[in-house]
Design goal:
SCO1/SenC, binds nickel (II) ion, two-stranded antiparallel ribbon, alpha/beta, Glutaredoxin
Length: 269
């Protein structure tokens, strides 16, 4: 984490460059009327950027960004009183069980991007293909970007998919994968929120030997818990990684913009 490659350094410099550009754009007549042109104000205004440049070039930028991202989302939540779920009303609160048998909710993932896939461990072909695709997409991302994402498989087969079973199954895929299962009501609830269809393929089937029909969709959820976009069966690993990367960058600029705004307000008082 603290070792930095030339490529990472170049990327960090790129970020700061863009921030500088933003700053340049925002210091128009509006800034002048507030008196930010005085040497004192200018120094104070510059300080967060200098501090950030230092952080970025010393390689701790992604940790800091994660920290501020969590703070940013918590502040937003505190201001609005409650979280608003998705413009397209996809997704929502859930309470499920992780692979260690611990109860988890959507709030546990606040500050991270979630990549959610609904499937089941007995699926013969499609689920393994999709989970492999997500794993490949993650591998195409840089280490710091991977750390911003939690890939999650939610089981649509709570009857057979115990936490232990899901844990064992996910060993074949990306090490960052988390598996969630629950009781039938909990799974039905989360599937409904994500508009995921699932049902036993053959309702006359009795016992443990059956297949599930289910939607094949991977959802990208933002650090605020809101739905961003989804990837279908035909989306390639490359496409997924490019789209995730652009969403992470967009989020970083939002967070940094908000930090600078806060700093500006603090120094103006
Ligand atoms: Ni499947």
């Amino acid at each position: 984490m603290f070792q930095i490659s030339g490529r990472q350094l170049a990327r960090s410099r790129g970020r700061i460059g863009l921030l500088g550009l933003r700053r340049g754009l925002s210091s128009g007549p509006e800034g002048a009327s507030r008196g930010s042109g005085t040497p004192e104000a200018r120094t104070r205004w510059r300080s967060p950027t200098t501090w950030l440049s230092l952080a970025a070039t010393s390689g701790v930028a992604s940790c800091l960004l994660y920290y501020y991202s969590v703070q940013y989302e918590e502040r937003k939540e505190a201001v609005s009183g409650k979280r608003s779920y998705g413009t397209a009303s996809i997704g929502g609160p859930f309470t499920l069980v992780d692979t260690s048998g611990k109860s988890v909710t959507d709030k546990d993932y606040l500050g991270k991007f979630m990549l959610i896939y609904f499937g089941f461990t007995f699926c013969p072909d499609i689920c393994p293909d999709e989970l492999e695709k997500i794993s490949e997409a993650l591998d195409l991302l840089s280490e710091p970007d991977q750390e911003r994402i939690v890939p999650i498989m939610i089981s649509v087969d709570p009857y057979r998919d115990t936490p232990e079973r899901v844990k064992e199954y996910l060993k074949d895929f990306h090490p960052r994968f988390e598996g969630l299962t629950g009781d039938e009501d909990e799974i039905e609830q989360v599937a409904k929120e994500y508009r995921v269809y699932f049902s036993k393929a053959d309702v006359t089937e009795v016992g443990d030997d059956y297949l599930m029909d289910h939607s094949i969709i991977t959802y990208l959820i933002g650090p605020d818990g809101n739905f961003i976009e989804f990837f279908g069966k035909s989306t390639t690993p490359k496409d997924i990684s490019v789209r995730i990367k652009s969403q992470i960058r967009k989020h970083e600029y939002d967070v940094l913009g908000s930090m600078m705004q806060t700093n500006k307000q603090a120094t103006a008082q």
